[in-house]
Each structure stands twice: as structure tokens, then as C-alpha cells.
Design a protein that fits this description.
The complex is a heterodimer of chains A (276) and B (402). Chain A is α/β, with parallel strands linked by helices and 276 residues long. Chain A is 47% helix and 14% strand. The radius of gyration of chain B is 19 Å and the shape is globular. At the A-B interface, helix 3, helix 5 and strand 6 of A face strand 2, helix 2, helix 9, strand 12 and strand 13 of B.
Chain lengths: 276, 402
Amino acid sequence: MSIIKSTFENLEKVNSKALVTYTVAGDPNLDTSEKIISEIVSSGADIIEIGVPFSDPMSEGPVIQMAHERSLINKTSLIDILSLSKKLKKKFKTTPIVLMGYFNTFINSLNSTKSNHDINEDICSELKKNGVDGLIIVDLPYEESEAIFKKLSKFEIDLIRLISPTTNDLRINEIISNSSGFLYYVSLKGITGADIDSYDELKKRVQQIKNSSNIPVVVGFGIKDQETASNMSSFADGVVVGSAIVDMIGDFEKEEHKVILNKISKFVGDIKSSIQ
Amino acid sequence: MKDKDKYNFPDADGRYGDFGGKYVSETLMSALEQLETTYENLKDKEEFKNEITDDLNNFVGRPSPLYFAKRWTEKLSGAKIYLKREDLNHTGAHKINNTVGQVLLAKHMGKKRIIAETGAGQHGVATAAVAARHGLECIIFMGEEDIERQSPNVYRMKLLGADVCPVTSGTRTLKDAMNEAMRDWVSNVDDTHYIIGSVAGPHPYPKIVRDFNSIVGIELKEQSRELFGRFPDKIIACVGGGSNAMGIFYPFLKDNSVDLIGVEAGGSGIDTGKHAAPLSDGSIGVLHGMKTYLMQDNSGQILSTQSVSAGLDYPGVGPEHSYLKDSGRVEYDSATDEEALDSFHDLTKTEGIMPALETAHALAHAKKIAPNMEKDEIIVVNLSGRGDKDMANVAKVEGLTL
């Protein structure tokens, strides 16, 4: 069984929901990323999403865009991120690690000469070896990735797909049959960090997806505080918190690191307690 | 069957061989499907075709002339050089051929708001003009650096009623304007149509933009028959995203007697790495929804580009160009900033026609090859835009103040 699947099963047993956190690797640098993520896991996160920085993060709002830029000042590469993942996996054996990013960095930084501009078995094997349990590739719809899904499955790496408010029923069914791990429901039409306008509509959609699939549904984009997290977790299997944490990481330049780590830790703990 | 008869791209998946496709976030997939369905349903309908033809004739001023550059030809003393005068179009470039078509698609889809990215400002102006003509709200995303070097066009867009939104992220040029336009589109997808200005982006854009610009090549075929009784020997066009080139090349792809040459922005020179020539010196990757040749580092990060012309200052290229490069049907070369500026002056002084700096790259290539060709051979350069917008920039590059 994939570690992501068992995480959700264990949470269900204790009647709890998954807290998924997103931070960008290498923001502000790789060593600090390791500290931040370790703090986040110790404070209650169930699944860690590690953002792979890209020069052109088209789906991100200003907060996460800046994190990508900060990380790229140090030229953080996928190879660096895999060694971060390996270290984290050693420390937290049962916490799933999911890399989230844009297709180009996955096909052009490992074995790029051999990759044929695709995610091939060499890349899958590298990911697996370094503790990666799942991938979210923002700009890779299922039409472009049926073969990639199969390859990743062979290596027991989940390909987590996004479903958005504009995804029609036909597509939802296609997406469900081409994903594993969990489904990531994008709560709004927009970019990361924007505001959610209707919970009723959101609830209806998430329930509709849950009715047609056994894969857990996690809601992301627009979850900023205990209230939004608690609302979402009443109907979803988990929530993703990204911009709110990344925003605090943005202060590493000007505030004392310990203060920020404590802030992040408290925030993560609070969110976790609000989604129980 | 010969290869040329097989050319039928994009395929059903929006691919040109291995290139193209739809690499976008899930939120945009339905909008792309809607656009594709709308376009496929309308494109062969008489009423739609008539509407476009009417706009092209009476709003844009088509057909554009095929002009013999007599003095420049004599000066270069080789092949005859003809110019396809897209600079004479309303708003000053080929860009309007696409926007008059796409705005009609937007209206058919019931979209009330138009967004676009722009580099040199030509696409922004062409979009603002059609939005004004149809009474639609219009927002243009433009990199801060480009706003500086193309200020006359910024003011034109504003006069036409558009909001010009400065983009301060990344390299502050065309690629970042496109990122920002994509972000806006994701956020306002229900009521907004994104008019992409080049044969770039996710399917169906490369196809739609090519088709709307093909009027240039279609006219050229007819004009060549009339004027020369045959097709030209070579057709040259500049390539940034590649819409003017695709527009003039596409109708000739199956005519193997015609050499097609795309000219990229060589910046300070290909060997300096400071350029915007992904086909000459790039590698395959995925950006802005398409698989294509890109300028990128060995971690898959997109590199910043350099060109004197804002309209060619883009790290990617339309996927069909990537296919045509690999298939060998089109030859791609580059011209440096210096060569482009030199041809900019040449044409202005010799023919009384001031070309856009983008176009000057194609002219620079003509200048290189014409002297080595026979006097009865014919080169057609797609004179894709006029250079009025570049005057301040040229003056600045040459150390003058206006």
C-alpha cells in the first residue's frame, strides 16, 4: 500500500482529517527549509508538499511567486530538492512527501539528455530512491500524462491530480481514473492565496467527487486560518495550507529565525487542531 | 505519397509531431475546450468568414501590397527583394489579422472582457483596437521593461480605452506578461477571453493564430502569380513567438520550391548566450502551455533573453516552428541587434519605409543572402510591422535623446 493511502486510512481510524502543508524548497535556503519542514511535521502536518521552484510559476499568487524567486536566487535545483527529501524521509519515515511543481523542471533537470523530455523510468527511480511518495504537476492535465501515470505507478509514486471548479463531469471521471494518492480540489477559480467565495458550492462539488471515487479529496487554495480550515475539513478529507505559511517564511530575512519557526509551529498546530 | 502531402498539423491532440499540446492548469482546460469547439464550429461557416473578410478589408485595410524594394535591390545587387507590407495594416503590424478574428470568437462565446499580453506593444494595440470597436473591456499585460522602451504604444493602448497593467515579476518582459495574463485568465475565466498574440501557448492557440495570420501567405500566393507568374524563391520572416512567420509560411509549406527562412533575435550574438533564439540555441521543454524549444538552464529554469526588439524578446517559440525546424522544411537563422539596427536604417533611408526592429531582423537576413543570389531570383520579406514605435528606443540605443 502506498504510504499516502495508509496515512489517510490511519487518519480515518481516529476520525481525523489530513493537514497537508506546502512550502517551497530552498526558501530562504535548503538548510532552513529542512528546519521549517521538520518543525511543521512535529507540529502536526500529515503530508508534506514540497514546492519545486520554477522561473515561471503561472498558477501562483504573489506570495508563492516570491518564494519561488527567493529560492531561485540560490539556484535550488530538483537534484538539491531530492537530497532534502531523502534527509526528511530518514527523519520522518511515515510522513508522505509530495513534490509539487511545473512540468519543465521535472523533465529537464534529471538525466535531461536521456529523458526525451518526459518523465521516464530513470526519473521515477531517482524520485523513489530519495523518498518521494507523490507528485503534483500543476501544468500537466491528464490528457498529457496517461503514460506518466502508469510509469509512476510502477514505482509506487502517486500522481496527484487537480480538479477545479471549471472541471466538467466527464473530465472529473477521467481524472479520477488517472490518479492515485489523493485528489486535490482547487477551491476557487484563481491562483494560490486568493479568496474563496462560496462554501456551499464547494461542499457540493467535493461531495460529488467523493461519491464517484474512493480516493480521498483534499481541498487547497484559499485556506488561510482556523476558520477556513475547519469549514473545509467538515466535508473534505483534508486541507492544504500553503500561502499562509510561505508568507511567514518571507519574514526570515528580517526577523529572528527562532521567532518565525515558533510562529509557523503554532500556526500549524492550530490548524491541525481545528480540523480534527 | 510525398511528405509534403502529409502535412496536417496540429493533430487531434493539438500536437505538431512531438511539439505543442496543452500543458495548463486544470482550471483552464474547459476554457481551451470551449475555444476549440467555438473555433471549429465557426471557421468554415460563410457568415463568419464574411464577417472576418469584411473586417480585414475595411477595418484593417487588406490586402496589403507586395512592394518591390527597387533601390535596396540595386544596392545589394543580387536577388530582387519584395516586401509584403503588413506595416501598412491598421495599427501598424500583422498582429491585427489575429485580433479581428479572435475578438469575434470572444463575442460568440459571450465573453465581455478581453485580456492580452504584449511585448513590443503591437499586439496590445491591435487588441485594444478591436476591443474598442466591439465595446469590450480590455486589459493588457506588459512587462515594466517593455513599457519603458515602447512608451508610444502604451499611450496608444490607453487612448484606445485599455488598461495597461505593468508586470513587475521575473524578467519584466514578454514571458512574464504572459504569466500574468494566464493568472488573470485563471481568475476570471468565466467572462474573459485571453487573446494570445502569437502562435504560442496551449492548443488551440497556435493553430487559431496561424490560421488568422495565414491571410498574409494566401495573398502573397495570389500576388506572386500575378506579378511574377510564379512563387518567390525565398520567403523571410522574423520569429519571436512566430506569428508573422507562420502566417506567411503556412500557405507555402507544401510548395517545396519555395525556401522558407525564419530569423530569430541573435541579441549580442548566439555565441555570447545573450540572445532570444531558442531554435538556434535552445533545448526542448514546456512553458506557457506548450512543448517547444526554449532557452533554459540545466535545471529546467527559463533563462532571461536579450534582444533590442521587445517583440522578439521571448525565450520560447511557437510549437509549429519547432516541428518545422526538426523536419527541415523551414530554415532558421538569426540576426544580431547590430545587424537588425543596420537594416533598420538601410530600409528607412533607401526605401523610405521605417520597419519595426522585429522586422529588421528579417531584413538583415535578406541583406546577407541577396548579394549571393541571381538577379532573376526573388526574395519576399514579410515586413511585419512599422518602426514608428521604435524611434525612441533606437535613439536611446544610439546614444541620442529626442
